[in-house]
Amino acid sequence: MTFSITQDGDFIGGEEFEFSTTKDGWSVSGSESTGITNTARTDSPYQSDNNEVYFTINSGNTIFYKKGDQWTFNTNVICNWKVEGTKSGIQFGRAETGQPYSSDSNEVSFQINDYSTDPFAEDDEFEFRVTESGLGYGKTVRDIVKVPGTNEDKAVLYAATSTGVFKSENGGQTWEEPDSFTGDYITTLALHPASDGITDIIYTGTEDAGVWVSLDSGMSWDQYTTGMGEGLSATTPVADSTNKGNGVMSEVAVKANTLSENWIVKRKVTGMFSVTGTVSGLQNNTATVGDIYNSDDEEVSFTISDGSTPFAENDTFTFSTTRDPGRKIKDICVDKTNNQLYAITYFAGPLEPHAVGNVYVHELNADGSMKADANDSWKEANTGLPEHDPPDDITLFPQHVLAADDPDNPKALYIGGEGINLFKATSGLVDGAPAWQTSKSGLTNLIMSRMPILFSGVCSMDIIDVRVNNTVTYTVYIEDQNGNPPISGSTFTVRTYKLNDKGDLVLLATLRDIEYPDCYAHEGTFRDIADPSTNIPYRVQTVVTPDSEVVKVEFVFVPTCEDEVPGCSGAGQSKEFMY
């Protein structure tokens, strides 16, 4: 080494100067990864040129360079399998024998096990073919129906999804959409019993577009909503703060054809008020003080009364009305014997104190098509069903599920919903006017509801770790092959460990402590690779420096696994990262 001492003034004499070379330099080379130019420094995290290896050389009491020290290590992986798809290409993640594997974008998952006395050898390979189901990765199915008389791998099935109806002709192995559905998110399905798998009559209920019917196995659809929905309520009229007169306006009565809109009642000439709705427009009928008023199409009715101070020009009252549009369908049921189709509607308006519902019936032709007489439309079929709080609130409790005792020849209909226990109708079925009566003897659960069920398969835990400087980010997926989370009761924990004074590993911190609920979607899943919004992995970060004390990060997944419902989410899995 060479150095120089610069003198700005006179040295006193007897002075001593000390310096040291505290950083050791290490060359790094690999038998396969040649040409590595990055050199390592003692006490600094090291990363090779192409991110093949990470490590840190920690200094001790004896300086390394004085001893000419060196280390060697291997990065051999036993039973490492390259995975390649004809369309997805070579996968970045490799499969390891005895470990669950999922491809880079979670297209496939599997596990290779070695139970043979002859171990796997280089160039051994497996080949398999994947057939797309046709329903799409992670698509939500709300209802499924099977064509009568079709079974096993010849079963004809129809599935209700958010985008349309899908059909399978091979027992659910593959699916296709017969044609584009122009309606809305489908919530429920029903088939006419005359369906034979060749020409099927399908009835669908939607989230916000009423009932749709197909007479040609889903190739074309027609909407049927006439007669559904009715006016519900009106807010209390409010007098404008600038009114000169102190007269009042009565409560507003609504009729069946009332719409959801805002109304303005304004005094124009002595004793006369104009009435305008934001949807219904300016009414031809004007309101006369002291007389009962009905709007043009009888949407609303009220009376304005004089006070001690007469009304002046432009004195105003305002109120709002709410209509149940009858467009959200909870369930449908076919009565082939009596040629009737029933539908349940549900509505929860922002101005309503509670949700409401109704039951409608539409007459069918003998072939299952909707009857189209001049006066034919949906009619209410709710006789005997309970009201919320009569006489002040006569709206009906929402219904959720409707079924016949015998689909081929109904003798009774059953209905269940919020707060109404269970009702049964055995009379009035011939003309589509069921008379509902309470039928709850022996029931303890008094809320009947169709509940979607999550079918979750074997789940794998896949972890991708990326280190940038001293921060490691772990991206974790715990899901089955369809992007479903584990069954309720399964747990996922992430813990960090440090060394105590004796050199033993002890718990430092718990970064995640999850117990899965009964749910469709959860953090740690990617349900639909075509929809980035469904990509919600766990992301865990930890700092790995001497000051952070972290020497191990542990991930543990413990699934629920039972022989009976809800089933099994696979075997327990764990993975450790040492620093």
Describe the 3D structure.
By secondary structure, the chain is mainly beta. Helices cover 0% and strands 37% of the residues. Strands 18, 19, 22, 23, 24, 25 and 28 form a seven-stranded antiparallel beta sheet that branches. The radius of gyration is 36 Å and the shape is extended.
Give a concise summary:
By secondary structure, the protein is mainly beta.
Shape: extended
| % residues in beta strands | 35-45%
- Rg (CA only): 36 Å
Task: Give the tally of β-strands.
Answer: 47
Question: Taking all residues together, what is the mean pLDDT?
Answer: 87
DSSP summary: helix tally: 0
Low-confidence stretches: none
Task: Record keyword descriptors for this entry.
extended, mainly beta, 579 residues, single chain, 0% helix
